[in-house]
């Protein structure tokens, strides 16, 4: 027989639902007690997560090795050839040193970004059941990290610090559907808004309908007031395709992020921006195609020799 | 009696919450992974009365809201979990065809995970949360449903055992 429920049961459900609605209202209104509850939980959980990260890492590495077996072999081959190349380059170091001195002068003139950063290890990846893309890092307010700070990897933008706790911080990845950032295109300086899509690809929408965007254009962070949440000039990704729909008000394009969010291990949080905007100085250099050596072979057909004839 | 039993079950949920936060979130599983607390709460609710189911949903929802990776206001998951656990308990309670068959419980749990995520999305939209592209949502929904269908049978036996001990129905196992 199906459960019909009684008044006491109904009252309990109503009380619980009302309580949860009260929590939502209090949280949305920014009541300190609710914020404190979450912060307190995170402070208490941080050591447990660090232990979990340490305990799970061998298993995770094993899984990663198994999944990337073919790639690892290719990488080994690539590293071997790179090693040989580096040996050769080391021998040419004296020549390179002289060139480097000249190059340094040029680079100093052009200026570099000069961000002050705090390095951190990724200790947890956000649960996808909440339809968000986040990571947790093992550095927090004690290391000078505050909310709304830019987070970088070796390749470019990773995301922004959403919440900072004493020894950890929650980072919203650039791939998160709720992520928005003002961007500009390197070179042309056209501006637009990039939004995450839940994958390694983002969508950039230009603000001006008279400008053009092309495949291969590099997207950089435009920067925010006082460089928070975003410092200017950080490379974000490269345009992979452009939507040229005739009815569209503004142009949109797909952007592939430089950072691979699924393999993040070490990240850096920008705690202090450069004194001046680095502009396009951080645009990664385009890979140059290696010329293939070619050999031209000339072949001439053999001339037929007269065959001797038999005489009687 | 019910409240006492509910309080007795809280260490289990606290342990599951810690395990989820410390270990499960470290595993970079394909198709988005799973939420163990959500699965355990739904199985527990499927074995309980609707009132205990709602209380379980409330407790588990609070835990999910307190998770560091939860971007939503506290109470969002709580509301979803109260409704989901109550619904699961309501459908299974008093029907031995459902409760006596592990496949039915696994089906209820998996469907519960899927529907609770859909409810989470709908409430999120009402609260102004960004949810991303339809393709991404479908991918995550399919992934969590897949993982729930795998994880539920693995922990069903343990949870049934613990549930029977907490509620004193071990002789019925």
UniProtKB/TrEMBL annotation, chain A:
Record bears the keyword Coiled coil = yes
Question: Gene3D superfamilies attached here?
Answer: Rod shape-determining protein MreC, domain 1, Rod shape-determining protein MreC, domain 2
Q: Does the keyword Lyase apply?
A: no
Which residues fall in a compositionally biased region of kind Pro residues? 301-312
The UniProt record lists the Rod shape-determining protein MreC beta-barrel core domain at 127-270
Give the record's keywords alphabetically.
Cell shape, Coiled coil
A GO biological process of this protein is: regulation of cell shape
Q: Which GO terms describe its cellular component?
A: plasma membrane
Chain positions covered by the region annotation Disordered: 276-312
Q: Which residues form a coiled coil?
A: 69-96
- What PANTHER family is this protein classified in? CELL SHAPE-DETERMINING PROTEIN MREC (PTHR34138:SF1)
Protein family membership: Belongs to the MreC family.
User: What protein name does the entry list?
Assistant: Cell shape-determining protein MreC
**Originating species:** freshwater metagenome
UniProtKB/TrEMBL annotation, chain B:
Q: Where are the transmembrane segments?
A: 34-62, 74-93, 105-125, 137-164
Write the record's keywords in alphabetical order, separated by commas: Membrane, Transmembrane, Transmembrane helix
Put simply, this protein is called Unannotated protein
């Amino acid at each position: 027989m199906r459960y019909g429920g009684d008044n006491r049961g109904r009252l309990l459900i109503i009380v619980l639902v009302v309580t949860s609605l009260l929590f939502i209202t209090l949280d949305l209104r920014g009541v300190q007690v609710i914020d404190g509850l979450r912060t307190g939980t995170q402070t208490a959980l941080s050591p447990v997560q660090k232990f979990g990260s340490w305990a799970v890492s061998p298993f995770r590495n094993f899984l990663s090795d198994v999944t990337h077996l073919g790639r690892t072999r290719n990488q080994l081959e690539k590293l071997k050839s790179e090693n040989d190349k580096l040996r050769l380059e080391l021998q040419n170091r004296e020549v390179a040193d002289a060139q480097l001195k000249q190059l340094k002068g040029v680079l100093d003139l052009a200026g570099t970004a000069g961000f002050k950063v705090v390095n951190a290890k990724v200790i947890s990846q956000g649960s996808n059941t909440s339809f968000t893309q986040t990571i947790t890092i093992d550095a927090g307010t004690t290391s000078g990290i505050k909310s709304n700070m830019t987070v970088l990897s070796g390749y470019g933008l990773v995301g922004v610090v959403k919440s900072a706790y004493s020894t950890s911080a929650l980072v919203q990845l650039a791939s998160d559907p709720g992520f928005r950032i003002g961007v500009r295109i390197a070179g042309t300086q056209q501006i637009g808004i990039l939004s995450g899509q839940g994958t390694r690809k983002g969508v950039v929408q230009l603000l001006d309908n008279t400008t053009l965007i092309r495949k291969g254009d590099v997207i950089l962070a435009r920067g925010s007031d006082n460089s928070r949440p975003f410092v200017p000039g950080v490379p974000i990704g490269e345009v992979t395709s452009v939507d040229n729909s005739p009815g569209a008000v503004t142009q949109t394009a797909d952007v592939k992020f430089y950072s691979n969010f699924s393999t993040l291990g070490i990240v850096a949080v920008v705690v202090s921006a450069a004194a001046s905007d680095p502009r396009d100085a951080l645009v990664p250099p385009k890979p140059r195609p290696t010329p293939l050596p070619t050999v031209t072979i000339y072949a001439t057909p053999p001339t037929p020799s007269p065959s001797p004839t038999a005489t009687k | 009696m019910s409240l006492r039993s509910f309080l007795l079950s809280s260490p289990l949920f606290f342990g599951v919450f810690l395990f989820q936060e410390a270990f499960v979130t470290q595993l970079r599983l394909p198709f988005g992974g799973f939420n163990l607390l959500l699965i355990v709460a739904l199985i527990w609710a499927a074995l309980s009365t609707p009132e205990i189911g709602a209380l379980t949903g409330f407790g588990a929802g609070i835990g999910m809201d307190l998770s560091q990776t939860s971007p939503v206001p506290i109470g969002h998951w709580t509301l979803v979990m109260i409704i989901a656990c109550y619904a699961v308990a309501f459908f299974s309670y008093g029907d031995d065809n459902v409760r006596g068959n592990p496949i039915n419980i696994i089906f209820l749990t998996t469907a519960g995970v899927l529907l609770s995520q859909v409810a989470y999305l709908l409430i999120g939209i009402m609260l102004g949360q960004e949810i991303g592209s339809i393709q991404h949502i479908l991918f995550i929904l399919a992934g969590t449903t897949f993982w729930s269908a795998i994880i539920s049978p693995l922990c069903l036996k343990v949870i049934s055992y613990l549930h029977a001990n907490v509620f004193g129905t071990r002789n019925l196992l």
